[in-house]
Specification:
Elements lengths: L1 H22 L6 E7 L3 E7 L5 E6 L4 E4 L4 E4 H10 L7 H9 L5 E4 L8 H11 L2 H9 L7 H11 L7 E5 L6 E5 L5 E5 L1 H8 L6 H6 L2 E6 L6 H11 L3 E7 L8 E5 L1 H4 L2 H10 L2 E4 L8 E5 L1 H4 L6
Helix pairs in contact: 1-6, 5-6
Length: 305
């Protein structure tokens, strides 16, 4: 009986693996999973290359959350997400905006994360083993589906210390210590310090080869949205030539305008995967090769639910 179950599992795994391989899109953008615990660990990888990045981040560092929630520690932001039953829709986008990494999945960990690079990699390999991933799916301690589980395992099974960039922010300060009215003290995440440390580690070779000039227009009255989006795209290798405002309000989420050739580029596909914009094909001469207009629905990312 046990043998039959094992054979059945192997057969299902092979079928799912083939399905995942067949259905996996060819967009060379980073995928990432965040392991929630102490510390928070983000594992990111290039979907076309065996290149990995691991961030270990103190869970008490405070970030600016989306939807007008203000400053929360990573641990508290996760608890808030669970309390309000957001299923990661508050937590993950807030991490993406702060750490400029596309993060698709989350999982809870209770393991000890070592100090050396080798120990950190061993922790990650343990969390990304097929057994651990399957357990997280079964007990629902992660947002992974069965197909996601196989996709993540296939993408990360070759991870090792030699192919991994490790940024241990437990020992490298990426924030400013602040005092609060109740007398407590905490470290507030500093984007400029963080950006200076990680550099262009998350940049896509294909996006850089595109060399597409991107102009970003904020069509909403909320200030600063365009700059936030520009920071994320630049960290992924995008070339921003203009960030400004447009007096003509766009009622939708966002729209990406350019020639047919530009709209099927890697840069366009990456922006689509991040924000889900509407394509608008044109042959007109534009301020950039692609024009990204952020609309009224996009503004809602920064407004209370």
């Amino acid at each position: 009986m046990v043998r039959r179950l094992v054979i059945l599992f192997v057969f299902i795994f092979i079928v799912v693996s083939i399905t995942v391989w067949w259905r996996t899109p060819g967009v060379p953008i980073r995928n990432s999973i965040v392991f929630i615990g102490e510390p928070t660990v983000i594992v990111s990888w290039d979907t076309k290359r065996s290149q990995y990045v691991i961030l270990t981040i103190p869970s008490d560092i405070r970030l600016e959350a989306l939807h007008g929630y203000g400053s929360y520690s990573i641990a508290s932001l996760w608890k808030l997400d669970m309390l309000e039953k957001r299923h990661g829709s508050l937590f993950l986008p807030s991490l993406v905006e702060n750490f400029t990494i596309p993060i698709q999945w989350h999982s809870i960990h209770e393991k000890t994360v070592g100090i050396t690079n080798e120990e950190i990699v061993q922790f990650v390999k343990g969390q990304l083993s097929l057994v651990s991933l399957l357990r997280s799916v079964v007990v629902r301690s992660s947002s992974l589906t069965l197909i996601d589980m196989v996709r993540v395992w296939l993408a990360t099974r070759a991870i090792d210390a030699s192919s991994t960039g490790i940024f241990d922010f437990r020992s490298r300060l990426i924030g400013t210590e602040m005092s609060f009215p109740d007398g407590s003290r905490a470290v507030q995440f500093d984007q400029k310090t963080y950006d200076g440390i990680v550099g262009d580690i998350f940049g896509s070779v294909e996006i850089r080869k595109d060399a597409i000039r991107l102009a970003i227009y904020n069509t909403t009255p909320m200030l600063g949205i365009g700059s936030r989006v520009a920071r994320v795209i630049e960290q992924l290798g995008g070339y921003i030539v203009f960030v400004g405002n447009d007096d003509v309000l766009y009622d939708g989420l966002c729209e990406l305008t350019g020639t047919k050739e530009r709209l099927i580029s890697t840069t366009s596909k990456v922006i689509q995967s991040l924000y889900g914009c509407t394509d608008v094909e044109t042959s007109e001469i534009l301020r950039g090769d692609l024009i990204l207009r952020l609309g009224k629905l996009f503004e809602k990312r920064y407004l209370p639910y």
